[in-house]
Each structure stands twice: as structure tokens, then as C-alpha cells.
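Batch manifest, entry 17 of 40.
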Amino acid sequence: MLPLEGVKVVALEQAVSAPFCSRQLADLGADVIKVERPGEGDLARGYDGALGGVSAYFAWLNRGKRSVVLDLKGDAGIAALDALLAGADVFVHNLAPGAVERLGFAWEAVRTRFPSLIWVSISGYGLDGPQVNRKAYDMLIQAEAGVVALTGTPEQAAKVGISVADIAAGLYAHSSVLAALLNRARTGQGERIDISMLECLTEWVTPPMYVQMGQGRPPVRAGLRHNMIVPYGAYSCADGQVMFAVQSEREWARLCEVVLRRPDLTTDERYRGNEQRLRHREVLEAEIEAAIASLTRAEVLALLDTASIANAAVNTVADVVHHEQLQARGRWTQVDSPVGMIPALLPPHNLLGVTPRMGRVPALGEHTQAVLAELGLKEADE
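Output type: C-alpha cells
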């Protein structure tokens, strides 16, 4: 039996943040009913056709769910959603600001009728405050939260290459739902969960904000180097780059003695402690690259391993698809979809006694008839 088996989730969702939350619930056994609009359904269905016609984002975020098409502009659709919520444990939604409220399903409207329901709102800026009505997408929140100010090179800011704001919101929503389910088991009461993408991402930006508060300046953008720890990043050698990280003074000494073959650097006052190394990073990083300039990547990586210095390959996406560690741990599997079997990674929950449910990626409206029949309703056109 999966941990969330018997939990029913109604997801009035689109794009990334709420679908990421509800997909994790589905992986752990919840019955997730995904409510989609007639015609196009979830916006993510149309992002691309990367997997034989199925959108990459949609395939990633929606396996194991049941797709139900409801026209929420009509009375029949509203009645069906109401009936779904009457039997639900969790209601996850991330429509445009105010949309759920206009449909009649605000927290205040449902809490007395469904007192055990866990009501989960995911929005850009939260349920109140001066920016409550602003629309929000991932890159916009990365900009608003200061992530782009910290990412890129000194000359050019950049966004993170994945939907980090959406993912953060989905992760916090998922963990909040689990906490609310645990609390409901004790009290019998539902909960209102208010997830703000801005708040999720600014939580992750706290260390740079502390630097700003404490030193009156932000960490610099450092490209493929860490902006608060030196040395930590990618450094050039004879045939490319190696990436490594020094986290302590013991590691700094081993790096100097074993890898750089420059033990004199350990007694240089400019490099005594991370704060000093950070202050003199330009000259220090030039010395590091000079010390390994004649060595190949393989030679430097071997020396780093000998010195027990953490290091990594700077992989392409193609490299990651075939990563030996993912292969060795059996992380790749397959799931069904409207175009047949497609690859999928096992979710990283990794509970020892739990095999996640890797369900089918649903076609639009694939389960409408069955779900409505469970409610004693019929499709609108019948």
C-alpha cells in the first residue's frame, strides 16, 4: 500500500507549480483528478511536442493523474467541481489571481461546507498584500526575487536554466500538504495553505540577502564560480575545464599541496580563510589556473580525487541522459502516454519500502466519463 493511497486530490491546475505538487502526491499513491478546460486543456500540453507529440513539461508533471474536462463557465461544470470537492481531501489550484474565488471556491466559501478539506493556493505573490493581483511566471519571479541579479557573469545577468521558482513553489506546496494531512489526522480539521512563489524563492535567496544586510553589498555574479566561496567553480586546464569545491581550511591545504603543488599558498595571508580568498579572488584564481594549465582534465581530476577534494564533470544535457550513476541506480523507467511508452525518472523520494506509482500520462479528458459516473453525473453533451 502506497503512503497516500486513499487520499483524493482535486487539482485545478496548469503549467508547472501546482502540477509538480500534485504529481508527487500521485507518485505516492494519491488519486489525483486533474481538472482541465475544454479544447486545449492545461497550457503545458501545448508547450512543445518533444516526446513524439507529447509536451516535455506535461509528460514530466502529469503522470499518474486522471484528466477530467469541465467547462467551468457553465453551471454543470461548477456543479461537477463542487461534487468532486465534496469527496476530496486536497484541493490544489494555481489559476490566475482571483479565478478560483470568482468560481465560488474561495477558502471562506468552502471551509464550512467541506471542513476537512485541505485548500492549497499557489500564486505569484500570495493571497493578500499590494501585489496580490499580479500575474506571475517563473522567469518573472526569478527577476522579482533577485535570482537573476545573482546569476550569470559580472557583465551579464542570466536566469536559471530550469523553472526554479515554479519548482520551489511545488515543493513547498507538496511538503505543506503532507504536514496538513498529518495534522488533520490528529484534529479532523482541514487547512488553508497559501503558497507564494516569491516567498518560496526569496527563502532560497536568504544567504545573499544576509550578505547585503551585513556588508552593505550583494555577492557578485561569478558565472561558473561560486559567488561566496573561493575556490569553488570551474577552472581551465590544458584541454578544458574542471570543477571543484573547497569547503574547509583542511581542504584548502590539500588542494595547494597535492593538486596545485603550491604549498606556499597556504601561508599567504591573502588566502588565509575564505573571506580573505573571496576578497582576493581574481589574483588567486589566476594562480590556480596557472598551476594546472599544463595538466589535462583527467590528470587534474585524478589529483583532486587523491586529495579528497569534491569535483564534478561539467556535463551537457546529453551526458546527463546517459549518466552512469543514474544507470547504475536504475533511475530510468518508462510510463505510458497517449503516444505510447516514454522514458521517466523515478521520483527521488526513495522510501525504502515504497515503490512509486509511475502512472500513465493522460490524454485530455481521458477520464471524464469515468470520474463523472463515480459522482452520479453525466458529461454535458450526453
